[in-house]
Amino acid sequence: MVKSWKWLDPFANFFGAIVGGFYKIPGTHGIKSLLHGTWPLGHPLHPMVTDLTIGGYTATIALDIVYVITRNLALPQAADFLIVASFLTSLASIVSGLTDWNETIDEERRTGMLHGLLMVVASVGFFVSIWLRLHGVADQRDPAVWLALVSWAILIVSSFFGGEMVFAYGTEVNRQAWSEPPTKWERLDVYESSLEDRKPVVGKTKSGFAVFVVKLDDKIYAMGNTCTHAGGPLNEGKWVGADRCEIQCPWHASRFCVKDAKVHGGPATFSEVRFQTRAADGRVEVRAI
Ligand code: FES
After folding, report:
1. Ligand 1: residue whose CA is nearest its atom 2
2. How far is the C-alpha of 21 from the C-alpha of 183, rounded, in Å?
3. Among the four 61, 62, 176, 228, which has the fewest Cβ within 10 Å?
4. What is the block-wise mean pLDDT of the chain (289 residues), using blocks of 10 residues?
């Protein structure tokens, strides 16, 4: 359905220009890694903060409804605290979500844009509800409660499309999650003598796992070749970093250290599978560690 909603594209272009433009500013690399969850979490940040936001708003609505039914004057204070706290966590949800979304394409991008636009509408509703609660007089409490309820309904619809991003398109899902690298020594069709410094080659295991093999300063290193972010081919990336031991994915510029297979820069948040290497009969053998 969302696939054909081209009216979302101008919004996507607008937000894409803002987010992409911001991350082109020198020195923002650390902020990007933080918001993806690459550092220090090593796990996507967005789903963690959205859980806080949705849970907080839902608890607010529950307290509001009980208040409307019982008129128990102890409840509004707790509801007001929760809605303000949820609004604050929603700011982290929005910026982390936009950071993840900016690395998407096509249908995934449109679905993410719809998710984001609905979240913006819900957030404006919650903000006005907070304003009414904090600045309004007693007879404005009911409009504030109903406005929060409508905003919550929009939030739930938005969450549906957020879930669609993960479950239908695999946004930020580890692309190596289902792979089965060998844990026993396995010989690759890669000859030790054919390896040249910093010229990666791809070897395949019996199960079809693609292994990035490279010679670096006379040592052979190996790790997964499929980028954990969205499946980019790491052997086509370029060398970066002070001692040129990091490979940068050609698709969205995630960086992996070839020596320990750890992710050093997002959007990827998961490290690569790391292999031990040895040479036997002139060929390279690997086993996952
Ligand atoms: S596929 Fe996105 S950074 Fe590699």
Report:
1. 252
2. 43
3. 62
4. 89 97 95 96 95 98 96 94 98 97 96 97 97 78 94 98 96 95 96 96 96 96 98 97 90 96 95 97 96
